[in-house]
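re: ur question from yesterday

yeah so i grabbed the chain u mentioned. its 74 aa long if i counted rite. heres the sequnce exactly as i have it in my notes:
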Amino acid sequence: MNTYNKIMKLIWLLIGIVMFIAVTVMCFIDGFEKWVFYYPLVLLAFGMYFFKVWMMKRMEKHIEYMSKKEKERI
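ran it thru and got these structure tokens back, copy pasting raw so excuse formatting
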């Protein structure tokens, strides 16, 4: 599961970067008024990346807590 999470984290980062570059280039080509509405999708992709990072750290802390609690119980 850890490998999957790392891969998905990188995928969201790559999607965000590629979308930002594509939308910015299209803004210069076709005009800002037409493509400005796609920037929230870029923000969503970067938001998913940071959410994934936060959740991975949170899960690691939770696993440590559960293993510590299990050792105390024994």
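noticed a couple things. The mean pLDDT is 94. also Residues 23 and 35 are 6 Å apart (CA to CA).
anyway ttyl
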